[in-house]
């Protein structure tokens, strides 16, 4: 994997608002087969990192490259899946139209979708299993269905990497499991980077885990180390693993932490 | 009703009706943008700053409609630029624009020599005094609004639904929302003639809000809002003529009654759930 070019590379990035530094010396490489879950507390810089990757917030220092390009040029290769805001529920838009917006870029004057584009929209709907909902209004869907629509909207532009913001917020546990199962299938063709505060939800599905609390800790592994958890919660903690489907915490080996 | 039809033999009544119907088209389309993008307060600020232009126009003796158009355009675009350049809170800027515009207008009218403008006619509209020139201007505005929306429909939909996603996909969000803000400014000035400054926001948002209860996409919502606006204008004008009421206020109350009926219909008869937007 080391001989591959990273799809996304973040080098020594510092960013923030006003006088407040939110990201401190963040480094991350995302390779084509990666499925990385970034966890961190609220206010730890998750949404700031997202904005920096998408070119919505210029970093103070450091560099972000998407396929070797600046975020503003490279972001068209990112399939961005935002959080659903509940106030959007009364926006009159169908599932099909929502997914079609993934193909709209630039000024698009008098834009009509070609036959091939319509086929791509259908294919995206089918790949996330919601083709039968195409005529439904977004406001009529459940949380899990809406999330699938947003994933389809991201997929329709044929991205190299999926970037998801809290994909399972306000979704019931069963739907959450289905979404992660879907992401695991999608990961066979593209890199996935997801950001969440829900530690247990991602731990059993992502290939690797990173922790973000101003600094990013990433060991390219899928275990939560004591260092990671402490960085997230800001204080020494006991790591107790129980009842999780896949063990993500290291075994104690006779020592106690904390 | 017969009285009303008889009244249509008069030029001023026909002009009033034509102006009302024409302005409803632009108001319906722009109103949908205002409602879906939650920029009602911005539109209010623009409407009130337009009064500054009206005052200045009277003082220097040129057409108040043109004065209002130029002034509100400058105010709207200026505010957009300031908003994107500084980290000032947008609602503060809008509040400042709102007050300064009104104050400027009043001072200039105070200092205008001789004939004093009737402030009330701008606050509550003077649809019965609309001139043929103004009707032409409104018709041109309709064409501009329609063309813009038809041409930019998909990028407009993308921006209105999810601005961040649109930005990431490379839609020129800033430029398009600037164009839309300019269209709001022009539409608002036209509406000032029909329903008056105070009621502009109501006629901009009520038809769109009702349409939102029933429409299944943005196109439908725009068409429905325009038709509803025209209908409210027609009924309002008829009530105003028959019972000798202020036309702008009558139009708004008809629209508000329809909104209430729409909400009730949705609550007890409709399929799509009612969500009262802010």
Between the first and last Cα atoms of chain A, what is the distance in angstroms?
36 Å
Helix content bin of chain A: 25-40%
Strand content of chain B: under 5%
Quick one: CATH superfamily of chain B? ABC transporter involved in vitamin B12 uptake, BtuC
The top level CATH class name of one domain in chain A? Alpha Beta
How many individual β-strands of chain B?
0
Outline the structure in words.
The complex is a heterodimer of chains A (258) and B (278). Chain A is of the alpha/beta class. Chain A has a domain at 8-87 and 157-233: Rossmann fold (3-Layer(aba) Sandwich), CATH 3.40.50.300. Helices cover 28% and strands 22% of the residues of chain A. Chain A has helices at residues 46-53, 71-74, 95-100, 115-127, 143-155, 173-186, 199-203, 226-233; strands at 8-17, 20-30, 35-39, 61-66, 78-81, 161-165, 191-196, 208-213, 215-218. A six-stranded mixed β-sheet of chain A has the order 5-6-7-3-8-9, sandwiched between helices. In chain A, strands 2-1-4 form a three-stranded antiparallel β-sheet. Chain B has a single domain, classed as Orthogonal Bundle (ABC transporter involved in vitamin B12 uptake, BtuC). Chain B has 13 helices and no strands. With 278 residues, chain B is mainly α. Chain B has helices spanning 2-7, 11-36, 40-60, 64-85, 90-111, 119-123, 132-151, 153-161, 163-168, 173-195, 200-214, 218-243, 247-268. Residues 272-278 of chain B have low confidence and may be disordered. Chain B is globular. Chains A and B meet through α3 of A and α8, α9 and α12 of B.
């Amino acid at each position: 994997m080391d001989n591959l070019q990273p799809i996304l590379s973040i080098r020594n990035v510092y960013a923030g608002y006003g006088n407040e530094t939110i990201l401190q010396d963040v480094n991350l490489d995302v390779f084509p087969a990666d499925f990385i879950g970034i966890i961190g507390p609220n206010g730890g810089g998750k949404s700031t990192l997202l904005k920096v990757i998408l070119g919505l917030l210029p970093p103070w220092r450091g560099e972000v490259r998407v396929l070797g390009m600046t975020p503003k040029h490279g972001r068209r290769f990112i399939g961005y899946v935002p959080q659903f805001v509940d106030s959007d529920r009364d926006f009159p838009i169908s599932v099909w139209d929502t997914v079609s917006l993934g193909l709209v870029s630039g000024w698009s004057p008098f834009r009509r979708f070609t036959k091939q584009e319509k086929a791509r929209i259908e294919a995206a709907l089918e790949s996330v299993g919601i083709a039968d909902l195409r005529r439904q209004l977004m406001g009529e869907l459940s949380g899990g269905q809406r999330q699938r629509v947003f994933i389809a909207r991201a997929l329709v532009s044929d991205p190299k990497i999926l970037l998801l913001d809290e994909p399972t917020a306000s979704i019931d546990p069963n739907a959450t499991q289905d979404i992660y199962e879907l992401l695991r299938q999608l990961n066979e063709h593209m890199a996935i980077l997801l950001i969440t505060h829900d530690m247990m939800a991602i731990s059993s599905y992502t290939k690797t885990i990173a922790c973000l609390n101003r600094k990013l800790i990433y060991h390219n592994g899928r275990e939560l180390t004591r260092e990671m958890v402490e960085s997230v919660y800001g204080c020494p903690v006991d790591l107790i693993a129980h009842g999780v489907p896949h063990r993500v915490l290291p075994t104690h080996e006779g020592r106690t932490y904390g | 009703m017969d009285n009303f039809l008889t009244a249509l033999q008069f030029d001023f009544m026909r002009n009033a009706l034509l102006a009302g119907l024409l302005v409803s088209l632009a108001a319906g389309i722009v109103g949908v943008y205002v409602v879906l993008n939650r920029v009602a307060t911005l539109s209010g600020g623009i409407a009130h700053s337009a009064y500054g232009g009206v005052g200045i126009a009277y003082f220097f003796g040129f057409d108040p409609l043109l004065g209002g158009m130029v002034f509100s355009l400058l105010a709207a675009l200026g505010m957009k630029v300031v908003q994107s350049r500084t980290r000032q809170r947008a609602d503060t800027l809008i509040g400042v624009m709102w007050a300064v515009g009104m104050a400027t207008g009043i001072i200039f009218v105070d200092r205008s020599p001789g004939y004093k403008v009737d402030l009330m006619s701008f606050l509550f509209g003077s649809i019965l005094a609309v001139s043929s020139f103004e009707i032409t201007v409104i018709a041109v505005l309709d064409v501009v609004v329609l063309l813009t929306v038809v041409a930019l429909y998909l990028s407009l939909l993308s921006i209105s639904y999810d601005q961040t996603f649109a930005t990431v996909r490379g839609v020129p969000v800033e430029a398009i929302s600037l164009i839309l803000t300019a269209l709001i400014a022009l539409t608002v000035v036209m509406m000032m003639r029909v329903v008056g400054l105070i009621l502009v926001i109501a006629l901009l948002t009520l038809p769109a809000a009702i349409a939102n209860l029933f429409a299944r996409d943005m196109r439908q919502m725009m068409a429905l809002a325009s038709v509803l606006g025209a209908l409210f204008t027609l009924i309002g004008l008829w009530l105003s003529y028959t019972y000798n009421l202020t036309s702008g206020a009558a139009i708004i109350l008809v629209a508000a009654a329809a909104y209430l009926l729409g909400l009730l219909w949705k609550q007890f008869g409709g399929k799509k759930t009612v969500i009262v937007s802010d």
